[in-house]
Write a structure and sequence with these properties.
Layout: H1 11-18, E1 26-33, E2 39-46, E3 57-60, H2 71-77, E4 81-85, H3 102-116, E5 121-126, H4 128-139, E6 144-150, H5 163-169, H6 178-187, H7 195-205, E7 206-208, E8 214-216, H8 219-229, H9 231-258, E9 262-268, H10 275-284, E10 289-293, H11 299-302, H12 304-314
Helix pairs in contact: 1-2, 2-12, 3-4, 4-9, 6-7, 8-9
């Protein structure tokens, strides 16, 4: 696969694959300097008929992904949108303290929404992005008009479905070519189902170093590799995860309880949220809506058109 002319050159191809007609939106890469010297990066999409309109929907991706995971969903949405690279992912800076948890990520996301939008957002987050979205909505209600959490609850077992993703990223930290990464993704049953989709995903999620080697952009792959290289380190990391899991889970429930915006949990029928998780969500957040869709965990990649249309309705568009 040859490198494209720019990171938005795939949009017409993605629209054609999804059967989405009409002009493609104009994409723009944004960068925000944070007070501690790190940077936050995002993608802003403007519709052809309103090129200067500010975003009305903001998207937060899951762990190990990046803002481009929402491309086809945004094409189907047909509204001005913002997709943020979470810290440690995409073109946003890594955190030296490796604290990739919702309440730590939320202030950076809030700063981005404040800088790049001009009104309360329909805030949509998947997986880690969903928990982060809840933390943003709880701490900055002025920024969030409505909240949509995709296939995650604070009670999801991190040792269930996500294990496959951790194993996938726990390989070498660098590769000879992007083709090797594509082969690995397909071998793990990842990548969107076709080699072309896997190539796009790998392109957006990797970079070529000055020495010509290819590495994943996100910090998680490097952390997973370090753990897999040392059984003792892996055991220690697992023990730490178990020790803090209940605390972090409870903080997530506290965030959801503090959200004043209308909230929807959208779960895949083959996703990570079990019936028991969903029942606990309903018990803890009784005023929220729960919707089940035919998808696995990455709803935005498996049924992006349906998701975009649902979000368009929630955003109040006809």
């Amino acid at each position: 696969m040859s490198d494209p002319t720019d990171e938005f050159s795939f949009l017409p191809e993605q629209a054609a694959e999804a059967g989405i007609d009409g002009p493609t939106p104009r994409g723009e890469r944004l960068t925000l300097a944070l007070p501690d010297g790190r940077t936050l990066s995002a993608l802003r999409y403007a519709t052809a008929d309103a090129p200067d309109a500010a975003p009305v929907v903001t998207f937060l991706h899951g762990a190990g992904l990046n803002a481009h995971t929402w491309d086809t969903t945004i094409l189907a949405l047909g509204l001005p949108a913002l997709a943020i690279d979470l810290p440690g992912h995409g073109d946003s800076s890594w955190r030296d303290d490796i604290a990739y948890i919702a309440r730590v990520l939320a202030p950076d996301v809030a700063a981005g929404i404040e800088a790049w939008t001009d009104r309360p957002q329909l805030l949509v987050g998947q997986s880690l992005g969903g928990l982060t979205a809840a933390a943003v909505a709880a701490s900055r209600p002025d920024l969030v008009r409505e909240l949509v959490i995709i296939d995650i609850t604070p009670g999801v077992d991190p040792n269930a479905g996500p294990t496959q993703i951790r194993d996938f990223f726990a390989g070498p930290v660098d590769w000879a070519s992007r083709d090797e990464l594509v082969d690995r993704a397909l071998a793990f049953g990842l990548g969107g189902g076709t080699r072309r989709k896997a190539e796009r995903g790998v392109y957006f999620n990797s970079r070529v170093r000055p020495d010509g080697r290819v590495e994943w952009k996100h910090h998680f792959a490097h952390l997973a590799n370090a753990a897999s290289a040392s059984p003792a380190a892996a055991a220690q990391a697992s023990a730490q995860q178990d020790a803090v899991g209940s605390v972090l889970g409870e903080s997530g429930w506290e965030d959801l309880a503090a959200v004043s915006a209308s909230t929807t949990l959208l779960r895949g029928d083959r996703g990570y949220v079990t019936d028991a998780d969903a029942a606990e969500f309903v018990r803890r957040v009784p005023e929220a809506s729960v919707v089940v869709v035919p998808s696995g965990h990455n709803v935005q990649e498996e049924i992006p058109t349906e998701l975009g249309e649902r979000l368009r309705t929630l955003a109040g568009a006809s």
